[in-house]
Amino acid sequence: QQQVKQSPQSLIVQKGGIPIINCAYENTAFDYFPWYQQFPGKGPALLIAIRPDVSEKKEGRFTISFNKSAKQFSLHIMDSQPGDSATYFCAASGNTGNQFYFGTGTSLTVIP
Amino acid sequence: DAGVIQSPRHEVTEMGQEVTLRCKPISGHNSLFWYRQTMMRGLELLIYFNNNVPIDDSGMPEDRFSAKMPNASFSTLKIQPSEPRDSAVYFCASSHKLGNTGELFFGEGSRLTVL
Predict the structure, then answer these.
(1) How far is CA B84 from CA A89, B31, B112, in A?
(2) From CA A51, how far away is CA A30, in angstroms rounded?
(3) Mean pLDDT for each 10-residue chunk of chain B (115 residues)?
(4) In whole numbers, what is the pLDDT of chain A averaged over residues?
(5) Site from A27, A59, A98, A107 to mutate, B interface, most B CB atoms within 10 angstroms
(6) What is the pLDDT of residue B52?
(7) Is residue A11 within 8 Å of A106, Cβ to Cβ?
(8) Which residues on A lie below 8 Å from B33 (Cβ)?
(9) Of the candidates A112, A30, A16, which has an alpha carbon nearest to the alpha carbon of residue A71?
């Protein structure tokens, strides 16, 4: 049973496009939502994270939008570049433990 | 900093053999996690330790899997006997904060193939 549902499974965009990856959760105890980026042959690495007390967080070309009432959050990549081609994982964690629940990942390809 | 170090990077073994995966977390980190990654199921948490003590092993698929953390700088994940369905990439990650905002630092993974 997936605690965090992620879509789409894969995404192909042209350079300069704005890919959007969506995640949804059910557990209202979650209060920390990170996104991880994984390149082939490497482990995931933290990209950006948000808490539910804000609706948006931006770091460079990466933006998280958060909708607490809908229990959904999404990652937007502005002016995407071929170097952004990677697998992206959303995750969620709550204050009752040290577990991070990951989505199933989205494979992003940015075409030059 | 060396980061989280895992070994071996690749392991090919035959069904029934014992497999031991090793992890050295980042010095000073007090939490260690073992994840398994497959195409079908994504990243699954197998077990995590805090201050060398196993906290939650509910993700360990069955008794064939065991994990230990004898000290703060070393952990092992053992599969005995291994089966083809255990083929996956196994990641170790460490964190320096207890609580839900600790950033996870992942190793580069151990790719296991069981024939």
Answers:
(1) 26, 30, 9
(2) 9
(3) 91 97 95 92 90 91 94 97 96 79 88 97
(4) 93
(5) A98
(6) 93
(7) yes
(8) 100
(9) A30
Q: Tell me which residue has tokens 């539910």.
A: A52
Contact residues on chain B for A89, CB-CB shorter than 8 A? 42-43
Contact B92, B1 (CB under 8 A): no
pLDDT digits (tens, 9 = 90+) for A99-108: 788 999 999 9
Residues of A in contact with B55 (CB under 8 A): 97-98
Tokens read off for B93: 């990650």
For residues A34-46, average pLDDT: 94
Q: Which amino acid does the sequence have at A73? A: F
What's the full length of chain B, in residues? 115
